[in-house]
């Protein structure tokens, strides 16, 4: 009986995620039209913030418990899923053009911030060569409180840059989607966020119980259910956006969420309590940076992410997950 209820809760959670994402995309794109803000800016800010709330909740909760080692794995795992699976699955439904602004500004920012966070926290073991002598669970570095504050300062600076750029270069876009009144647009965004968060929690919690019922270990549950579950909002929102033709919103959501995860979530977590980085997380950070560069190269060469590249991305994520489970 309990298994049946949890399967039912899982399905209800997915429905809430899908409908919530639908409301969120409609409200966000309408808001962009009202204020004549490019969809890419809305995707990089409001949508990215809303869909990253589950990761923020998980990392902040862990930090408050003083067990925030999960913060780094949560950020790297979510970012890998965003790049490989969210962009990958979007490209299966629709060729995903990548805005030139994202190519020139936001992709490089995401990669640069990843490098800063990695080397600022683990430069000792990386440059000394000691990393290869460590076991996966051994401590390799620390995201200090000062580094966390720096990440938050960079986050605020980045948001101000986005707002300044949007005001400096207002656009007049063709009305390709319905424009609601300002109150209704905001209401749709709020309802969408609420449904996304509730749906994400329902999916994660029910899937965890179902996994335990079938004898899956806590480690395997964390690597699969929790990591994927907290990134479901990005996946569903971007797929819905891509199917509605709001491709700038879809790509902006992915890159914006990654920057948000690195600067704000890791910044908040380490400011609350310094975050220990183990050897496994250093490797994950390295893989994340390589994958980010690869996705950037794909986007530059074709000015879009195509179906073949999307399939490659999805298969790469599957291989990385298998490696994480077996190591």
TrEMBL record:
Localization of this protein:
Membrane
Keywords in alphabetical order, please: Membrane, Transmembrane, Transmembrane helix
**Mind telling me which residue stretches traverse the membrane in this protein?**
36-58, 79-97, 109-134, 146-166, 186-207, 219-243, 249-268, 280-298, 310-326
Please give the Gene Ontology molecular function terms for this protein. Answer: calcium channel activity; calcium, potassium:sodium antiporter activity
- Pfam families per record: Na_Ca_ex
Does the keyword Iron belong to this entry?
A: no
- Which biological process annotations from GO are given for this protein? intracellular calcium ion homeostasis
In its UniProt entry, what is this protein called?
A: Cation:H+ antiporter
**Where does this protein come from, organism-wise?**
Treponema rectale
